[in-house]
Amino acid sequence: MLMRTIAFLVGAAFALLACQSSSRSEGSLSLEEKKRRLESLRQELFRLQAQIAELEESIQAQDTTFGRKRRIPVSYIILHPRPFTSYLQFQGSVENRAVVTLSAKIPAPVVRVYVREGEFVRSGQLLIEQEAEVLRKNLQELRTRLELARELYEKQKRLYEEGIGTEVQFLTAKNTKESLEASIATIEEQLRNAQIRAPFAGRVDAILVRIGELASPGLPAVRLVSSGEWEIKMEVPESFLTLAAPGKKVEVYIPDLNVSFQSRLGVVATNINPLSRAFTVTVREIPAEVQRLLRPNLVAYLRLPQSEVTDALVVPIDAVEFQDTAAYVYVVRGDIARRLRVSVVGTERGEVALAGPIKAGDTLVTAGAALLSDGQPIQLVEEGL
């Protein structure tokens, strides 16, 4: 007896020293090393649990009373009906209906760039100006000639009204004045064509020309992004056609911005792509505070409600045992765990809505269910896990 006590005390001392040594060594580990150590211990736990389960099954095959003599501690929940919604998730992208690449209307070198990349501009604001000195000189000459033509026209008009001048002289003076006015209007339009202006308010995303470079029609000069024309588009398989309808509430998540918001489907395309067998849905109701953060081609996820139940029995997914297409749970009857086959209504974020022989008020095993068999005595130790 004494020897057993001494052996026990020595063993306990060695165990304590080992724990202290392990604690000190693990305390000096880096964060990544601790994570790897934790994962290693978890894998070891899984291996031990598998070995225990295999041994128990082997022993129970030879001794049918084995396992039922001991009570297995388990956690549990009391089933209460509550609303439950399961979702389908689809990947899409952020687009802007007013992303334009502006180009010059006439071929001419760039002489001035009035804005910088990232700058917000108003509608009609001058962005880039091209070389047009010859046009300006022609315009000045025509304006000088127009002043003389107007004076001659006014004099001929007065003389003609007094019956002194001839009608030919009056019409000639009038035609000269109007021709010069038309020529001036043409050159003024040409001068406007030598300017690149913003067609709408937005942000200058890129300036693609430099001072001195030749800007020509069809060649990109400025890329402008509107600040309020954002939308999110995604492809939905045709098998879910009945779930998507304009105005249906959806959840949108943009992972790169770590933002999510509630919205509604705007446009649901009627055409189904013959190659992908999918149709396009569009979300346009985007909060203003989110629009300020958006960039074209950001990845976005749309969560579309699939099934909605007002009084579902919802349990953690770990409490459900799946075998092929069947699902099972353990329900407490007295101090015995009974294995019941249930139907899965839907799954969502680690939870499962169930239907079947279970009902509101039942006690259902959560943690520890993997160690049970039908008819196993149990001990309820903790609720709500």
What does this structure look like?
The chain has 385 residues and is of the alpha+beta class. It has helices at 2-27, 31-62, 133-161, 167-193, 288-291, and strands at 72-78, 81-96, 99-103, 108-113, 120-121, 126-130, 195-197, 202-207, 214-215, 220-226, 230-237, 249-254, 259-264, 267-268, 278-283, 299-316, 321-323, 326-333, 336-348, 351-355, 363-365, 376-383. It has four domains: 2-58, no CATH class; 69-83 and 310-383, conserved putative lor/sdh protein from methanococcus maripaludis s2 fold (Beta Barrel), CATH 2.40.420; 88-96 and 227-308, Elongation Factor Tu (Ef-tu), domain 3; 99-225, OB fold (Dihydrolipoamide Acetyltransferase, E2P) (Beta Barrel). It contains five helices and 22 strands. Strands 1, 2, 11, 12, 13, 14, 15, 16, 17, 18, 19, 20, 21 and 22 form a 14-stranded mixed β-sheet that branches. It has a four-stranded antiparallel β-sheet with strand order 3-10-8-5, with no helix packed on it. Strands 7-6-4-9 form a four-stranded antiparallel β-sheet. Mean pLDDT is 81; it is low at 1-24.
